[in-house]
Amino acid sequence: MSTTGTTDREAAGSWGARDGRETAGRLLRAATRSGAHLVAEAAALVQGWAVLADPIAGAVYSTPASAAADGVHAAAAPQEHPYCVQLPAAGAVLVLAPAPTTPAEHTGHVAATTAALLEVRGQRAAELRGEQMRLHTTLIRLLLAGHTSVVTETLGRNTTTATETLGRDTAVAEGLGRDTATAPATEGPGGNRLTHVTVYRLTGADIPAAHQVLWRAVRPSLDPYAGACTLLGRLDGELVVAELHHGGDDGRVLRLVSRVSERHRLLAGMAGPLPLAEMPTAHSGAAAARHSATPDRRIVPADAVGTSRLAPLLPTVPYARWAESVLRPLAPAHRHLLLVWLRTGSKPRAAAALGLSAGTVRARIRELARLLGADLEDATVQAHLLLALRAPGPDDGGNAPLPPGAPGPDRLAALPDGLLDGEAVRSWAYGLVGGLEPHLRIALACWLRHHARTAPAAAELHVHRTTLTSWLGRCAEHLAQNLADATVRAELHLALRATRNGPDDPAALPRRGGRTYRRL
Fold it and tell me: Measured in whole angstroms, how far is the alpha carbon of residue 435 from the centre of its chain?
């Protein structure tokens, strides 16, 4: 009997070893192809489903695809899925759901081997990540320089050879003229054409970690045969994400950027989709939008920054006619520069958004002030200019002579009669600033006239800077507005002027001895 038992155990052990070697061999061959093939082979070996779940990206690989949601849920709540085997793998979680007839030892062996191979693939990817990140940064810089055809040709090649050919592409790009910017996007594999781009610009203290997390999350979309390609690069201390696609944004990258922004406490601006040739416009628009982001709203679209609750209330015909006559001397590039400047709230911020020096921006704004015949440093003029830039109507971008009787650039300092006198505008203005106490209203109006600079406003009000800062905090709380947003400040300035019964003069600030004030 002992002999028979020994023979049975030897046979069983011999079969188990062979089975283990065959399983490991199948998984190793799949791992040499791709992570997706490795997870698919693991699912076949356990006769169930397998998912590699990432906390940010969700399901990285899933076999079958319908198991993605179950795999992500199992990784997030393992106690609710006791039948699943879960192991950490390459910064994510490998989830295996075996068939009831699959032996536990076999499932464990498949899970351990798959996780180990995923770790090896992850380490190999980490070794190449630095080089790939530099490639992405270079491609983004080429897009900003207008070399769209070079970028699309590089993306059209196999990703394994893209890095090798980048040096030659960069050298070619440096010799190209501006005609490249308007060249149509080249056709990639399978007839796909990457024609549009959506840009995200993120800032914050945790940018390096966010870059790594977002890289891992969007990596599956880097396949050149896919319908979109995502580029990630760090430029001048901020994280830039450029999603190239065919004009339709499915929102996947937006969701990932939103999650990363919340997790790492970043502020982000978004612009697009725009044609690839307009990449610089999208880049600067995203920066302008980012200046409107807050911890309560960490990602802001560029089109939301320019949206005004006042503009739809104005009579369309006189508003559009006034805006067209005021802006007629400006080319589209001039209007874009002014819009970025007014939205960001300062020349240094506008320079950073536009990729120019602060001195260049100052010089161009001085030239535009001459063309418009207005003092662009005046707070009222800036508010009117932003209102004109957001007006509806055709944009001819030319310098055609003004029609007879039309207001010229010298009318930028004053709005047409009746433009802000409508009942709807008055209701909007009173709803916005009508409940402010007198001293808060005067302090806010003075601060806005000084372009949100506390020190000169406090000096004119004859109060301490700390006092003014406290009052402004109460104004922001009462108005439920973000006073750090330059476009919000412009609308508050117009609302204060529309509801003014008398001059909001600092000399009229209610006082009671010294530098104190009394409430009325």
Answer: 35
For 55, phi then psi, to 5°, come to -65, -25
In the three-class reduction of DSSP (H, G, I as helix; E, B as strand; rest coil), residue 89 is classed as strand
- In whole angstroms, give the CA distance from residue 7 to residue 12: 9
Name the β-bridge partners of 196: 245, 275
| Mean pLDDT of the 233-257 span | 84
Could you report the per-residue pLDDT of 116-141, keeping only the tens digit for each?
Answer: 888 888 777 666 677 788 888 888 88
Which position has the token pair 């006559």?
325
Q: Which of 139-148, 152-161, 189-198, 283-292 has the lowest mean pLDDT?
A: 152-161
Burial of 210 (0-12, 13-18, 19+ CB in 10 A): buried
**Is the separation of the CB atoms in 97 and 89 below 8 Å?**
no
Region 472-500 average pLDDT: 84
Q: Which of 381, 387, 418, 379 has the alpha carbon at shortest distance from 312?
A: 387
Name the 3-class secondary structure at 81: coil
* Mean pLDDT, residues 261-280 taken together: 86
The sign one gets for the Cα dihedral 368, 491, 377, 342 is negative
- Cα pseudo-dihedral 404, 405, 411, 412, rounded to 10: -60
Structural tokens at position 117: 């191979």
The amino acid occupying position 152 is T
Query: What radius of gyration do the chain's Cα atoms show?
Result: 30
Say if CB 127 and CB 155 are below 8 A apart. no
Cβ burial 503-517 (10 Å sphere, 16+ → b, else e): ebebeebeeeeeeeb
The CA angle 414-416-420, to the nearest 5 degrees, is 95
Using the predicted structure, report yes or no on whether residue 179 has a pLDDT greater than 60: no
Residue 177 to residue 175: CA distance in whole angstroms: 7
HEC sequence for 281-347: HHHHHHHHHHCCCECCECEEEHHHHCCCCCHHHCCHHHHHHHHHHHHCCCCHHHHHHHHHHHHHCCH
pLDDT tens digits, one per residue of 183-222: 334 344 344 567 888 899 999 888 988 888 888 777 644 4
Q: 443 φ, ψ to 5°?
A: -65, -40
Contact 233, 199 (CB under 8 A): no
DSSP-derived 3-state class of residue 465: helix
Among the ranges given (50-59, 164-173, 209-218, 264-273), the one the predictor scored with the smallest mean pLDDT:
164-173
Contact assessment for residue 158 and residue 149, using Cβ atoms and an 8 Å cutoff: no
Beta 299-301 vs 267-275: how paired, if at all? parallel
Measured between alpha carbons, how far apart are the two ends of the chain, in Å? 106
Q: What is the pLDDT of residues 407-432, one digit of tens each?
A: 444 467 777 777 777 788 888 888 88
